[in-house]
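F.,

This is the one I mentioned.
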């Protein structure tokens, strides 16, 4: 058997029964794609179908590529790359583990201070906090809990506040865990009483890499949390795990101290996409970042539609802002590295930004298909029937995307965790399509800010005047 055939078959075999079933489900997408236009004008219907199902097409191709990348990197079931750091007993690991610190920037946390500190478990004594100009008694609440607090009279937002906090860390601290006040550790204890955090930190320190992204899970609190749990797990267990040692950090990440200091020294200090900016700085300096699912942190989902909407507007604004402002770093990070070329230039740049108008056009076609289907069902005949508004486009896109999500669930979730997300899988297409609206507004906010000096929609992260000052400083 030739190598050209053997490698894809090896990748399929390495996925196991669940992954193989997932790939078979993806193959069904191709059959369903053929069905709507099999007996019609192929050229016209194919164009309409592809535009209407843009999300299905892009996400299916991305899923297939990331499955292949995961196999090529040879990562274990927990990490995106093998960590060959030697064999040590739990006693030796604890003895050789270098000092580490947990750092966080907080603002008006008084009512949640106790829950935040309790979420760190036995490692609360490693916590260093900077109070980012709170207007309540956050400092007093944290000090009563025995937390070391640095006060800031100026509200610098997370990157600027952490840069100040790094200056007061003890000199012997080798590794830094950046936390947010709404997250907590989900710790497990292994042989010899060694916790999952200590084991992960030991391997991280021995690897010499710049940063590691842990697994982030959403606490179970209802429908919104289940949808976001499905979204986060797919993004981490498929997206981040496929990146090998050229991954991207998240808002909660582990850094080598000198790497974080370097990233913050070159950071724009904008809170938008601050973790993506950190990753770009490190990757463009030939540093390595990996994903480690052994360390699990829990976070709270956005519980209301307005809050979720505001968050995603800010995420989209941050992506385009960092991408355009730091495009030279994007080019340096991806130069000569096919995987980063795909992640940064094709996936984030071409598909995420340049092709977004096509996604919007597809959303418009699906909306017209829905309206035409309702019109036909009610017998109103207000909308003329045509290939452009055929209800089959919406139906096919929904079925295709739902099958794709089923395949992703088999790959991304352990069997014991699938029960939670199965009920929301049929709704995930609607959730994904709906997110196209705040993403579009986020991109338009960036354009509007540059042209007229104000945004169309004000998210909860920054004010317009602060963003204009940042743009002027960057220029």
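My design for it:
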């Amino acid at each position: 058997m030739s190598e050209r055939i053997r490698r894809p078959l090896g990748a399929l075999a390495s996925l196991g029964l669940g992954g193989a079933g997932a790939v078979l489900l993806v193959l069904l997408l191709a059959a369903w794609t053929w069905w709507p236009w099999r007996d019609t004008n192929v050229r016209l219907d194919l164009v309409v179908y592809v535009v209407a199902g843009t999300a299905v097409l892009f996400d299916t191709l991305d899923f297939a590529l990331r499955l292949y990348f995961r196999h090529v990197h040879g990562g274990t079931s927990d990490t995106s790359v093998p960590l060959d750091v030697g064999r040590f007993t739990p006693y030796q690991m604890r003895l050789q583990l270098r000092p580490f610190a947990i750092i966080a920037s907080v603002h008006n946390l008084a009512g949640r201070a106790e829950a935040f500190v309790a979420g760190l478990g036995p490692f609360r004594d490693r916590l260093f906090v900077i109070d980012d100009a709170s207007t309540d008694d956050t400092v007093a609440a944290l000090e009563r809990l025995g937390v070391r607090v640095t006060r800031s009279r100026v509200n610098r937002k997370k990157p600027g506040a952490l840069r100040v906090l790094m200056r007061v860390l003890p000199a012997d601290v080798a590794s830094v865990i950046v936390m947010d006040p709404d997250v907590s550790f989900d710790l497990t204890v292994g042989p010899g009483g060694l916790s999952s955090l200590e084991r992960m930190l030991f391997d991280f320190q021995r690897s010499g890499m710049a940063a590691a992204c842990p697994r982030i899970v959403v606490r179970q609190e209802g429908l919104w949390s289940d949808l976001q749990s499905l979204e986060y797990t797919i993004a981490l267990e498929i997206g981040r795990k496929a990146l090998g040692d050229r991954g991207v950090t998240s808002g909660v990440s582990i850094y080598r101290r000198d790497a974080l200091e370097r990233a913050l020294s070159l950071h724009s200090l904008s809170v938008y996409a601050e973790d993506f900016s950190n990753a770009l700085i490190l990757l463009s300096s030939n540093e390595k970042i990996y994903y480690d699912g052994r360390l699990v942190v829990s976070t709270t989902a956005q519980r209301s539609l307005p809050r979720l909407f505001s968050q995603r507007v800010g995420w989209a604004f941050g992506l385009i802002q960092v991408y355009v402002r730091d495009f030279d770093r994007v080019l340096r990070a991806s130069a000569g590295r096919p995987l980063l070329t795909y992640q940064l230039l094709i996936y984030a740049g071409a598909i995420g930004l340049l092709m977004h108008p096509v996604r919007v056009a597809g959303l418009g076609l699906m909306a017209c298909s829905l309206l035409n289907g309702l019109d036909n069902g009610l017998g109103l005949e207000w909308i003329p029937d045509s290939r452009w508004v055929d209800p089959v486009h919406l139906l096919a896109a929904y079925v295709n995307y739902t099958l794709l999500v089923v395949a992703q669930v088999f790959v991304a979730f352990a069997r014991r965790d699938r029960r939670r997300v199965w009920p929301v899988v049929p709704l995930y297409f609607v959730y994904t399509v709906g997110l196209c609206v705040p993403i579009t507004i986020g991109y338009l906010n960036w354009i509007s800010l540059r042209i007229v000096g104000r945004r169309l929609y004000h998210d909860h992260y920054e004010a317009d005047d602060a963003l204009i000052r940042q743009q002027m400083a960057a220029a």
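The longest strand covers residues 289-299.

Talk soon.
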